[in-house]
């Protein structure tokens, strides 16, 4: 690891159910853009997890360097808040804006903040220190309008997960207290537990390539059949055999969706899908097929 130079951050594995364990600490999973920030009184660079320098997209975050006296690297999430909750759709709109004048307007009127959960460099690499020691070092830095440290609980993962479910937040992260920071690794020592929703939707058609099959999902809203997204399935699923036996047409049953290379069906078959949230356009985010 070298200050000012990109490295691939430590990534998380995923599990379904929350758990309690005294060897873990638990914190909120913020719905944002993963980033590492290299900062000193004279340096400020933001790298996303894929290695792109995205400093220019968030000029308001440069304020952070006015509060840092050493060469430091922080790991965290760039987050946009709406009604006191993280809003990924709002952040997406911001992240796809490359016009410098618009970026300047956003930074003044809809500023983001950096929610930091780890300090992995302070004049030297801290990656070999246990997580709990890095957390203590992180505590020496003060929160400000653009730099917010995550809070955490020890042992009580289920309690924290119930709290985030009530507030409809994305999920929690469980981290081994003694874990080192593993660069360029998806580690089992850090675990994400997402707050997935589950619903039943009608199948209004499908798309098929050599690689995958995508079901076109919809629901009835005020007597109109509305498209809500696609979910992938394998050809081994029973539902695939059922949709292939149905008579497909070129006429879309959706009032808001029609696409070439799609086969449309009378919406009679249903399937259950888990998903993270609905976007502002009412589309399902991160849908996963569960059963038919």
Characterization of this structure:
By secondary structure, the protein is an alpha+beta fold. The protein folds into two domains: 11-194, D-amino Acid Aminotransferase, Chain A, domain 1 (2-Layer Sandwich); 197-291, OB fold (Dihydrolipoamide Acetyltransferase, E2P) (Beta Barrel). Helix content is 15%, strand content 40%. The termini are far apart.
Class of the largest domain in CATH? Alpha Beta
What is the CATH fold-level name of the largest domain? D-amino Acid Aminotransferase, Chain A, domain 1
CATH architectural type of the largest domain: 2-Layer Sandwich
Helix proportion: 10-25%
Order of helices and strands: EEEEEEEHHEHEEHEEEEEHEEEEE
Tell the overall outline.
globular
Integer count of domains: 2
Mean pLDDT figure: 95
Class by helix and strand content?
alpha+beta
List segments where confidence is low: pLDDT < 50 over at least 5 consecutive residues. Answer: none
Strand content: 35-45%
Report the strand count.
20
Tally of helical segments: 5
Radius of gyration: 22 Å
Biggest beta sheet attributes: 6 strands, antiparallel
- CA(first)-CA(last) distance: 48 Å
